[in-house]
Amino acid sequence: MASSARRRGSRACIAGIGETVYTPRGGIRDRGELALACEAVLKAAADCGLAASSIDGLVSFANDSSVPWLMQESLGLPALRLGSMVWGGGGGGCYAAIAQAASAVESGAASYVAVYRSLCQGQGQRYGQGYDVPHGPAFLDPFGMFSPPLMLAPLAQRYKHDYGILDSQAAAVALAFRDNASRNPRAVFRDRPLTLARYLEARMITEPFRLYDCCQENDGACALIVTTHERARDLKGRPVSVLAAGQGAEPGWGSGGLGSHNMPEEYYRSGGGRHLAERLYGKAGIGPRDVDTAQIYDHFSYFVLMNLETFGFCGPGEAGRFVQDGHIGWPDGSLPLNTAGGHLSEAYIHGLNLAVEGVRQLRGESTSQVKDAEICLLANSASAAILGR
Amino acid sequence: MASSARRRGSRACIAGIGETVYTPRGGIRDRGELALACEAVLKAAADCGLAASSIDGLVSFANDSSVPWLMQESLGLPALRLGSMVWGGGGGGCYAAIAQAASAVESGAASYVAVYRSLCQGQGQRYGQGYDVPHGPAFLDPFGMFSPPLMLAPLAQRYKHDYGILDSQAAAVALAFRDNASRNPRAVFRDRPLTLARYLEARMITEPFRLYDCCQENDGACALIVTTHERARDLKGRPVSVLAAGQGAEPGWGSGGLGSHNMPEEYYRSGGGRHLAERLYGKAGIGPRDVDTAQIYDHFSYFVLMNLETFGFCGPGEAGRFVQDGHIGWPDGSLPLNTAGGHLSEAYIHGLNLAVEGVRQLRGESTSQVKDAEICLLANSASAAILGR
Q: How many helices (H) and strands (E) in chain B?
């Protein structure tokens, strides 16, 4: 018992959350990404009553321009024991950042780690346009894969073809998330209702992605404070447990679509995320049926469908029907998804705002609250986390 | 006993090392940084008899252009469970990369992690010239801090002034390392003997740095395989223990010299690395007197002097005399340093080739072998590691 209690005490949790305002691209002009990153971290610290000067770890991902040393100087942190910029883009990096923070506090490498992401596409690179990736000019550009929609469309197109996914099924994802956004005052598209007709009439970005299948380009930042349960006892509010978190990539994922669509079925569809899912469910000691709500990385609606399968909520090719049958809607679905509106309708803070919403759900504070939510999955095929109340 | 044995079995070690050829800048034209990174990783795997396909973690640092997904595709790794690009530049990143790999294998997040760095200044950015750092144009350029020598010279200048460091004492660092390089067939400057007269006659780069105080710009790559002792038993050769490894930064370090030279004495001189040193010595259960050889991050000779003090080999301001008294030379010094020639004379692979040399020392395979070496310190003020035989 003592050992179990000690184990529980040293386990990682998310004690605080913080968000700046989220605006359409270019909406924030009076301060830069760095100032927003600091604002989000300070809000997350204040949320749990932590003195910001106690933060001794800073973890972001995907080449956040607000690198740890600038954050340290700007926040006036006296000592940094972990500064990390996790590789893996948004989807492969965001929940891996939580995993690194959790490992750090569990091993004693750091005590209070701020996981943050600041992303102003109005100030820097627009992800919907030309996109800088290392070796992109050599390996991606010759195939026309200049930006994420172009890189990822072939995977979605094959998935759609292989399983006969209907336009209306992809639309159901976008519509459900927009509906959630309508109740979330922080959502960029809170006042922009969407109908199936409007979805279908919208312009094609690159097949099969129509406009409303694609996440937003926007400005904003958010942050989490990760610490141990033992330390969180001295803070404000109720911490949310990190039951499991990790990173994983198998051929066909990380390549940004480079040839993935030509790979065997398992790989093109899930990037091997099925093994990541098995590993995390095993560590948390739960299965898909125990998940009350999931926040699935929705850079494009089709990847929500694929990840419903990857994370075991339905079988291969069944996600279209699963969504069509109303499982993902709030409040009546069996698995309400992206309850703040997701990347499609709340904001695209590269996955981390989905984690903030996951914490809100387990605190009972979502604007689309799932009743008695105890387990929340944060999922991309290349990084994921399971949070528990 | 069983628990202690298990603890020992799950502790991290370095099982394999690999290096490409090291050449002056521009010396490698027939293959790119990515190919070199792969070559180094494959050599490190072969060195310990590991099938490369077993590698499930890839960790580099300082925006290595050979990002994990490209490495995964190029090496044909079936599953990646950890891909990390550690923040912190060379000095703050290189031993932190070892720390991340060690944490990963100790926690079970991954089994065999390749830590690698490929750096061809003939193909990409020249560190000695204009230097891209995030927010550099806003915060560094107005003060003329366009590149590492310019960023770091003010710290060295103040240190030199405060403690009356002599030119001949800084020279003693450069001369000792060049002497070590003369015995190392891999060293870029193996055939370029240096004399005090030549050191003093060389042009000033930026006060107090003369040409031979500065590390090289060169091409090459190196890698380590990190795993647990338990797994290493099934591999070839004798693994070297990672007794402690970590990252740390306090105000005045990470900023690349931004205002650091105006900080209180402790900070400008060590970047707060003293606390990192205390932490790692404590974890390893040793003190400076137990260290048989150290490989100290020598981007500039003056920082070797400062870190001799930071890591407790002598008191504040005493390093000039320590070096002058012959302590760092091979074979007769009490603490032979950078025994392969270091960044100044072997190659500048951003700190990681110093780790390779540290492993060689503890295997008894250095070309400037320290007799019966059992403990090797790898040190920068912002990341460090202690290796044991």
A: 15, 12
Separation between Cα atoms, residue B101 and residue B82, nearest integer Å: 9
A302: annotated active-site residue: no
pLDDT(B8) > 60: no
Q: How far apart are CA B291 and CA B308, in angstroms?
A: 12
**Cα of B326 to nearest chain A Cα, Å:** 34
Q: How far is CA A380 from the centre of its chain?
A: 7
Predicted-complex ipTM score: 0.83
The one-character DSSP state at B163 is: H
- The closest alpha carbon to A323, from A174, A172, A192, belongs to A172
| Terminal CA-CA length for chain A | 21
- Measured CA to CA, the distance from residue B322 to residue B304 in angstroms comes to 11
Which pTM value belongs to this model? Answer: 0.90
Do A109 and A82 contact (CB within 8 A), yes or no? Answer: yes
Residue with tokens 């093994």: A275
Q: Mean pLDDT throughout B3-26? A: 81
pLDDT at B363: 98
Kindly determine whether residue B81 and residue A247, on different chains, have CB atoms separated by under 8 Å: yes
Q: Where do the domains of chain B lie?
A: 2-124+214-388
Among candidates B77, B81, B106 on the partner chain, residue whose Cβ is nearest the Cβ of A246: B81
Percent of the residues in chain A that have a pLDDT greater than 70, as a whole number: 91
Q: In the CATH hierarchy, which top-level class contains the domain B2-124+214-388? A: alpha beta
- The angle formed by the CA atoms of residues A166, A169 and A170, to the nearest 5 degrees, is 95
Instruction: For residue B289, count other CB atoms closer than 10 A to its CB.
Output: 10
pLDDT at B286: 97
Answer whether residue B260 shows pLDDT above 90. Answer: no
Tokens of A31: 């301060």
Residue A219: which of A31, A16, A379, A17 has the closest Cα?
A31
**Residue pLDDT, tens place only, B232-248:** 999 999 999 999 999 88
The C-alpha torsion from A312 through A318 and A321 to A323, rounded to 10°, is: 30
A258·B73 Cβ contact <8 A: yes
